[in-house]
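To whoever picks this up:

The nightly regression suite flagged Membrane-associated protein as changed. Nothing in the input moved, so I suspect the structure step. Input below, exactly as stored in the fixture:
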Amino acid sequence: MKFNVKATAVTFGLFWGGAIFVLGLGNLLWSGYGQAALDIVTSIYPGYQATASFGQVLIGTLYGLLDGAVGGAIFAWLYNLCADKFAK
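Regenerated output under the current build:
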């Protein structure tokens, strides 16, 4: 069985982007919510600060969508590569 690289990339992107979006919105609604996780995200993505503003939530979400999509594509590609090698 092989993974569809595009579908896996979209799925990972939506998952990771959605996770950052939910964390960011939670932080907007309840001060300090998910702050430790958002601080980690801040250390990874340049230009993103874990401040309580909707603009920063959108920036983090876009970074998450892109990062998740790239990670998902690499994961599916490596999985397919290994599946081909070990299936024979």
